[in-house]
Amino acid sequence: MKARVTVTLKNGVLDPQGKAIQHALSSLGFDGVDDVRQGKLIELELQGRDREQAKADLVAMCEKLLANTVIENYSIELV
Amino acid sequence: MKARVTVTLKNGVLDPQGKAIQHALSSLGFDGVDDVRQGKLIELELQGRDREQAKADLVAMCEKLLANTVIENYSIELV
């Protein structure tokens, strides 16, 4: 089973990487960009066919390792 | 207008960061993970309302800056 976890910074948390991308885009001539935020995308290939179990496992993985829940949000999607 | 760009490594390109995550998950007791690939998620806030123009701009941004098209794929989604 394929799963896709996206980890994004919470609103209000500074994102220097996003700002760097925004400035780089601007210096390349892309002026109409108001804001850029960079997050992480983690694609996992899971064994087993129990979707509920997989979701529970993924939440635990995010809480323990994949996301820093103090400053990051995560969302889980089973494909 | 909000846009979401995902940048992932092409198949066959080694992903040491993904492997590191997989090993860390395994050492935390998550055994049913066959593979992990890490990608990037870039969320942009764009000016203007012309969706076709926005898509064309985003393709240009990906080709010029956001993705290394030798080793990475990108996909664009307007929200």
From TrEMBL, chains A, B:
<keyword id="KW-0436">Ligase</keyword>
<keyword id="KW-0658">Purine biosynthesis</keyword>
<dbReference type="GO" id="GO:0004642">
    <property type="term" value="F:phosphoribosylformylglycinamidine synthase activity"/>
</dbReference>
<comment type="subunit">
    <text>Part of the FGAM synthase complex composed of 1 PurL, 1 PurQ and 2 PurS subunits.</text>
</comment>
<comment type="pathway">
    <text>Purine metabolism; IMP biosynthesis via de novo pathway; 5-amino-1-(5-phospho-D-ribosyl)imidazole from N(2)-formyl-N(1)-(5-phospho-D-ribosyl)glycinamide: step 1/2.</text>
</comment>
<dbReference type="Pfam" id="PF02700">
    <property type="entry name" value="PurS"/>
</dbReference>
<keyword id="KW-0547">Nucleotide-binding</keyword>
<dbReference type="GO" id="GO:0005737">
    <property type="term" value="C:cytoplasm"/>
</dbReference>
<dbReference type="GO" id="GO:0006189">
    <property type="term" value="P:'de novo' IMP biosynthetic process"/>
</dbReference>
<comment type="similarity">
    <text>Belongs to the PurS family.</text>
</comment>
<comment type="function">
    <text>Part of the phosphoribosylformylglycinamidine synthase complex involved in the purines biosynthetic pathway. Catalyzes the ATP-dependent conversion of formylglycinamide ribonucleotide (FGAR) and glutamine to yield formylglycinamidine ribonucleotide (FGAM) and glutamate. The FGAM synthase complex is composed of three subunits. PurQ produces an ammonia molecule by converting glutamine to glutamate. PurL transfers the ammonia molecule to FGAR to form FGAM in an ATP-dependent manner.</text>
</comment>
<dbReference type="InterPro" id="IPR036604">
    <property type="entry name" value="PurS-like_sf"/>
</dbReference>
<protein>
    <recommendedName>
        <fullName>Phosphoribosylformylglycinamidine synthase subunit PurS</fullName>
        <ecNumber>6.3.5.3</ecNumber>
    </recommendedName>
</protein>
<dbReference type="InterPro" id="IPR003850">
    <property type="entry name" value="PurS"/>
</dbReference>
<keyword id="KW-0067">ATP-binding</keyword>
<keyword id="KW-0963">Cytoplasm</keyword>
<dbReference type="GO" id="GO:0005524">
    <property type="term" value="F:ATP binding"/>
</dbReference>
